[in-house]
Amino acid sequence: MNETKRPWVRIVLVVGGLAMFGLAALFCFDQERAKALWLWWDSPLSLYFVAAMQAAIGAAMLWIGLSGELAALAAGALNLVVMMAGSALTLFWIAGVDLRNPIFYYAVGCALFALFNGWLFVWARRIPLRDNLPLPPLIRYSYMLFVAALAGLGIALLTTDWQILPWGFGDENAYTPRILGWMFFGDAFYFLYALLYPRWRNACAQLCSFLAYDLVLLGPFLMRWPLIREWFDHLPRLPDELLPNLVLYTFVLLYSGALGVYFLFINPQTRLFAPRQRAHRD
After folding, report:
1. Residue 267 above 80 pLDDT?
2. What angle do CA 117, 122, 127 make, to 5 degrees?
3. In this predicted model, what pLDDT tens digit does every residue of 61-89 receive, in sequence order?
4. Which residues pair with residue 134 across a beta bridge?
5. DSSP designation for 268
6. Is 50 exceeded by the pLDDT of residue 280?
7. Helical ranges in the chain per DSSP H
8. What does the alpha-carbon distance between residue 166 and residue 251 come to, in Å, rounded to a whole number?
9. C-alpha–C-alpha distance, residues 264 and 268, integer Å
10. Is 111 left (phi over 0), alpha (psi -120 to 50) or beta?
11. What span, in angstroms and rounded, lies between the C-alpha atoms of 252 and 83?
């Protein structure tokens, strides 16, 4: 039986995608309970960022499950191999082999999930794409910028530059930048995969992810802009030195969101409900 026709895989992806949306909603709207699930105490923007990543994964899973484009799982699996393997290394470094430390078990979970996604990557690579539409030039150039920015941001967070994000870190969440760094670094591989195999269906999941990611983060970011804060006294305030980071990050969200809206819903060749082309058979 053709692997792309297995309905149970698509059902698992749809259910899993909806579950990720539910988890993202928890991290957005019930942050006190979310803190019990997270590694340690953290700031609201860190939890919003984690929620955005969860929503991004959920959006990709949902699109792949509904479309049946199982070959697109390879890019997301590669992302999670890098993200989870790196996070496992960091958490093992923090916890050591102390079986009494809950971080040790988070590290074991990340390592096992990285191994699972390694298997998933190999499995998905055997599946042909269901259409041969090439990667649009604007997406190609945008993804080049995204790969460079994500890799650079990830490396910065994994080393010493923690002032690159639009929120700060203290003693309680001093290890958070390293975990976020692995998330950014994994995302660089997510977009790189679409550049190495430049077909539209290899890039579609990333844009779905970006839209969900943007929708989660855009509101909390805009609420911290000085102009909007002036209208509402109760809104949170950022230190002045972080405002340039906030402005730059917000414009990246707006650009990636506009890119996703155009190619997923407006462009007649690439929109989600456009007629599907048949794949080439060599």
Report:
1. yes
2. 115
3. 999 999 899 999 999 999 999 999 999 99
4. 199
5. T
6. no
7. 7-29, 31-37, 44-67, 73-95, 102-125, 137-158, 176-196, 200-222, 226-229, 243-261
8. 13
9. 9
10. alpha
11. 21
